[in-house]
Amino acid sequence: MAKYSRELKIFIANRYLFGGSSYLLSKEYSISSRQIRDWAQVVTLHGDNAFVPLPHLRFATARFEALKLIPTNGWSPGQTSAVLNLISPGILSVWLGRYNKLGFSGLEYRQRGKLAMKPSRTTLVRSDDEKSLEELKEEVAYLRAENAVLKKLEELKQLSDNKQRKNVSRFSSEKAASLKILTRCNKACKKCLLLPC
């Protein structure tokens, strides 16, 4: 994701173009004044279409042609990136470095971000007739172990439920006994609240 949104770049560039000082804008937005002037140059050339990513520049041939514009026209990388409407003027330096290091193949588009998950390995399900005796024994052992684990989980769940029922019934019987005491006491006696008369 870009550090600054397209809208913010255009907004700041327009403020600069309509008489704002790049120095004051850089202080206000904590962005270098050089960066603001670069953005203004792109907005001057492309208007509302400034900083729109160009899909054709994902191809190595288009990137190579973009690099050739620098010496051919005598432009700086900043001017070239402004003319080509690149997101960042530094991208030309990156492409040039890759081209010098790896040649034309260094200009190939590389996907950014995490790699896609590998598809899970699917095992072929064979019928029991096709399996060997050893495979069938392993499968039976696995299923028995799985069954034992499930039974143990069910048993633990029942024990937990029984404990909760006992606690609830014990609590409710204690509550009932205290209510009996209060009702007997409150019938005719006003001197004691908890003790039966």
Features:
about 200 residues; mainly alpha; elongated
Describe this structure in words.
The chain has 197 residues and is mainly alpha-helical. Helix content is 62%, strand content 0%. It contains seven helices and no strands. The protein has helices spanning 6-17, 22-29, 33-46, 60-73, 77-84, 90-102, 133-186. Helix 1 (6-17) packs across helix 3 (33-46), helix 3 (33-46) runs parallel beside helix 5 and helix 4 packs across helix 6 (90-102). The protein is elongated and about 85 Å long. It starts with 5 loop residues before the first helix and ends in an 11-residue tail after the last helix. The model has no long low-confidence stretch (mean pLDDT 79).
Topology:
Blueprint: H1 6-17, H2 22-29, H3 33-46, H4 60-73, H5 77-84, H6 90-102, H7 133-186
Summed up, what is this model?
This protein is mainly alpha-helical and 197 residues long. The chain has 7 helices and no strands. α1 (6-17) packs across α3, α2 crosses α3 and α5 (77-84) crosses α6 (90-102).
Distance between the termini: 80 Å
The percent range for helix content is 55-70%
- Average pLDDT for all residues: 79
SSE order in H/E notation? Answer: HHHHHHH
